[in-house]
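Key result, reporting period 2: structure in, sequence out.
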């Protein structure tokens, strides 16, 4: 049996990425490791030190990263999908796939990584403005 530890994402803008995961999704910056002699820094974000984490890797060079089609998304369970989407919009995050079904939404982090948000427990009843978006096909 294997235990999920972390997913690693390369970032060219660690500040924006850390803000997305801490202020947007409410994770904690658990650890930062800087390796100036090797030219990179690591940032580990999660709920707790023992739970699964996102590892952000910042290489101190001018590389530009492209999303590979082998990586799908990171998924996070949320207590209220509507409140989380409203919060992320207030943080300037675009909701790519609104929670039209009261259960699931998609956003992207500053690195272009797809983030799936899943409602904890059963789907919530449809609510505005998400219900109007669903009827208009705004996703």
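The corresponding designed sequence is given below.
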């Amino acid at each position: 049996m294997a235990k999920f530890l972390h997913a690693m994402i390369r970032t060219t803008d660690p500040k924006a990425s850390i803000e997305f995961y801490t202020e947007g999704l409410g994770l904690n910056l658990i650890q930062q490791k800087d390796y100036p002699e090797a030219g990179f820094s690591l940032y580990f974000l999660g709920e707790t030190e023992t739970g699964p984490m996102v590892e952000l890797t910042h290489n101190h060079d001018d590389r530009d990263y492209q999303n590979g089609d082998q990586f799908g998304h990171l998924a996070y369970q949320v207590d209220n999908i509507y409140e989380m989407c409203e919060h992320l919009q207030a943080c300037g995050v675009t909701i790519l796939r609104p929670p039209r079904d009261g259960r699931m939404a998609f956003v992207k982090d500053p690195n272009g990584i797809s983030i799936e948000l899943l409602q904890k427990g059963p789907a919530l009843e449809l609510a505005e403005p998400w219900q109007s978006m669903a009827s208009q096909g705004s996703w």
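The chain has a mean pLDDT of 88. The chain has two domains: 1-65, 71-139. This case is discussed further under Risks and Mitigation.
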